Amino acid sequence: MDEIVNKVAQSSLMVFDLEDYYPEHHVVDLDISQWLLDGFILKESEFRTKLKEMDWSHFEDKYVALFCATDAILPAWTFALVAVHLAPYALKVIHGNKEMAVIEWYQDILNKLDYTDYFQKPVILKGCSKKSVPNQVYTLAIQKLMQVSKSVMFGEACSAVPLYKQK
After folding, report:
1. Using an 8 Å Cβ cutoff, are 10 and 46 in contact?
2. Which of these, 149, 115, 108, lies nearest to 23 by C-alpha position?
3. Closest by CA position to 106, among listed 127, 129, 135
4. Are 63 and 29 within 8 A, CB to CB?
């Protein structure tokens, strides 16, 4: 009987899996409506007091997405003041939703990675994520991989979609 050979494992094909860099507990969101009167009214002195009394330490080494869950009309300085309190603890503060912070996380990670292992090799940008990697992150990743790889496909080895081939 012939032995089954895994040709994918034997090939020079490299897999780039964005899930390897997923920020499991490194990205959190923070709703500032909790510090507004009835969730809608900003009383500056009370707002500042609540911010001073807040324990910010649980945001240490996190990307924090600041948002307001209500339709409160807030002055421009509101989010900036919260960012001032977060700055000594958080890695980064984003005014927006958690997905925006995840994209920012990936952008920073992808900018710091060493891509030499992928130099002049065929690469699969792994799809079919078990984690919710935003689609924008795949766009960021392909731009990095195109600079070094011979070719880039998307998906899995058994059903990859060609995206890029070096000329």
Report:
1. no
2. 108
3. 135
4. no
State pTM to two decimals. 0.88
CB neighbour list of residue 93: distance below 8 Å, 6 or more residues apart: 63, 64, 66, 82, 83, 86, 87
**Segment 79-128, tens digit of pLDDT:** 999 999 999 999 999 999 999 999 999 999 999 999 999 999 999 999 87
Distance between CA atoms of 117 and 167, rounded to whole angstroms?
20
Structure tokens at 152: 């880039």
CA distance 81 to 65: 14
Nearest to 16 by CA among 135, 157, 132: 157
Question: What is the enclosing helix (H) or strand (E) of 77?
Answer: helix 77-86
- Enumerate the domain spans of the chain: 7-23+102-165, 27-90
